[in-house]
Amino acid sequence: MKVLVTGFDPFGGESVNPACEAVMRLPDRIGTAEIIRLEVPTVCRKSIDVIEQAIITHMPDVVISVGQAGGKPDITVERVGINVTDCRIPDNEGNQPVDEPIYPDGPDAYFSSLPVKAMVEAIKAAGVPASLSNSAGTFICNHVLYGVRYLCERKYPGVKSGFIHIPYMTEQCVNKRGTPCMSLDDIVKGLSAAVACAAENC
């Protein structure tokens, strides 16, 4: 079993992105799964292309993408991605599409093919707050959730994929009084539990 876990680079004026920081701290193996770690650019289309190249190179059984959702208090496992990119801010190359389909020939939405409810329970069982989310937004996180699912359905049958949002990590909130955050150690612990659950149930 191979699991490709991706994390975005910093965006929106932040100097770090806890998604990439946490993904790069995952061990080489979780249970019986071999873990492949990948940093992904916070850029429309290029993000999907980078992940597809990793799928071609490594032939994973599961792809789990991770992104920052500043302001959320817990780790949220996403249920569905929608076929629209509507960026409230530019991506890291200045692109800012508004109400554009990710794939014009794709359906309105794709559900994650991961065991999302079981993953939430696994994260909580590890002592880390978690919940199920029914909206991944319309920025690059949703772009990747939908885009990777599209690729798996059309070109890489049998590959399971989905998306997890994580909060700011503690050091990002030093000057964001009242904003929820989580330690990087807890984020890594939660992601590890989620990956283990996905590997066991896919």
Topology, pairings included?
Blueprint: E1 2-8, H1 18-25, E2 29-30, E3 33-40, H2 46-58, E4 62-68, E5 75-78, E6 80-82, E7 109-111, H3 116-125, E8 130-133, H4 140-154, E9 160-166, H5 184-201
Parallel strand pairs: 1-3, 1-4, 4-9, 5-8
Antiparallel strand pairs: 2-3, 5-9, 6-7
Helix pairs in contact: 1-5, 2-4, 3-5
Query: What's the end-to-end separation, in Å?
Result: 9 Å
Main sheet attributes: strand count, strand direction, barrel closure: 7 strands, mixed
How many helices? The count is 5
CATH class: Alpha Beta
Structural class, judged by helices and strands? alpha/beta
Provide the low-confidence segments as ranges.
none
Kindly estimate the percentage of residues that lie in beta strands according to DSSP. Answer: 15-25%
Mean pLDDT rating: 97
CATH architecture: 3-Layer(aba) Sandwich
Question: What overall geometry do the principal axes of the alpha carbons give?
Answer: globular
Overall domain count: 1
CATH superfamily: Peptidase C15, pyroglutamyl peptidase I-like
The neighbouring-strand order within the major sheet is 2-3-1-4-9-5-8
Helix-strand sequence = EHEEHEEEEHEHEH
Question: How many strand units?
Answer: 9
Return Rg in Å: 15 Å
